[in-house]
Amino acid sequence: MSEVGVIGLGVMGSAIARRLLAAGHRPHVYDVRPEAVAELEAEGAVPAARPADLAGRLVVLSLNSATIVERAVFGPDGVLSGDSKGTLFVDMSSIDPASTRDIAERAERQGAAWVDAPLSGGAPGALRGELTLMLGGSDEDVARALPVLRILASRTTHLGPVGSGQLGKLVNQVLVGCGFAALAEAAALVRAAGLPAEQILAALTGGRADSALLQEFFTKFATVDLSPTGRVANMVKDLEIARDFARTRNVPLPMTTAVSELHRWLVARDHGASDNAALMLYYTGGAEA
User: Fold this and answer.
1) What is d(CA 231, CA 167) in angstroms, rounded to the nearest whole number?
2) What domains can be seen in the chain, in order of their start residue?
3) 85 in active site
4) Nearest to 90, CA basis, from 23, 170, 153
5) What is the pLDDT of residue 42?
6) CA angle 55-68-29, nearest 5°?
7) Which residue, 10, 63, 105, 134, is the most exposed by fewest CB within 10 angstroms?
8) Residue 286 pLDDT more than 90?
């Protein structure tokens, strides 16, 4: 599909739109914040006055909750408020699997197709075209989406029917959320000892503690670098979705619960919009350095 729409121009959605621009697409973009649309328009994107203007395209959704996804799709000015023929939704939001299946079934009844494609790699990965995507949907719909998704991602895995991608993302977020908490504690030790973060990272590289998470975030945490790569509030949402799903299967998640509460502590102190490195504020008494 030559024309691509992007709905939701937060940290991730903006990075997705910029990656598409860099690849030669001219995405049609929509956000409830006119200033976000204007910023992307200045870089070459086509502004949309309402989600309905994006019908008939491959529409990437990058939104914060199932309620917002539902509104963008089915609301009075939603994508499916008019002629929905040919619309293929690629939902890169992180929402619960049950809501994904429900929304997808309703969209399909109106002639649209759905692929859930939650991501790992954050805004930096999107800008480089190196996201990891977990896909749910029919073979046919995933095949239609792949030419665009391969612009954004270096790894795509089709896990099964609609909702499967969101289940894969839950596993990812449990590992990443708990990993962030471990990084924050390790970085707090480094800061307390006055050790150079870059040298500690070099010492750990190649050992059992090494990981993509360590390489990307250790010095960011140790220096309390709050430049945006993700939001604390989104991590709380994702970990709570994982906990809710686990309860339906009677699976205990004690570590995930503790990490979720640590992130919730930050939200309660008005750091919900802050980067995940704000976990360091727990150890620095609120100081940013």
Assistant:
1) 20
2) 4-161 (3.40.50.720), 167-284 (1.10.1040.10)
3) no
4) 153
5) 98
6) 40
7) 105
8) no
Residue that is written with structure tokens 């339906």 in the block: 248
How high is the pLDDT of residue 227? 93
CB environment 207-225: b (16+ within 10 A), e (fewer): eeeeeeebeebbbbbbbbe
Reply yes or no on whether the pLDDT at 288 is more than 90.
Answer: no
Across the range 54-61, mean pLDDT stands at 96
> What is the pLDDT averaged over residues 101-126?
96
Q: Is the pLDDT of residue 287 over 80?
A: no
Active-site option among 85, 169, 220, 237 = 169
> And the tokens for 222?
């140790």
The answer on pLDDT for 97 being more than 70 is yes
Is 60 exceeded by the pLDDT of residue 1? Answer: no
Nearest of 158, 195, 262, 278 to residue 230 by alpha carbon: 278
Q: How far is CA 68 from CA 7, 146, 233, in A?
A: 11, 25, 15
Paired tokens of 145: 């989406």
Q: Which two tokens stand for residue 94?
A: 């992180």
Cα 164 from chain centroid? 16
DSSP assignment of the chain = ---EEEE--SHHHHHHHHHHHHTT---EEE-SSHHHHHHHHHTTPEE-SSGGGGTTSEEEE--S-HHHHHHHHHSTTSGGGS--TT-EEEE-S---HHHHHHHHHHHHHTT-EEEE--EESHHHHHHHT-EEEEEES-HHHHHHHHHHHHHHEEEEEEEESTTHHHHHHHHHHHHHHHHHHHHHHHHHHHHHHT--HHHHHHHHTTSTT--HHHHHHHHHHHTT----SS-HHHHHHHHHHHHHHHHHTT---HHHHHHHHHHHHHHHTT-TTS-GGGGGHHHHTT---
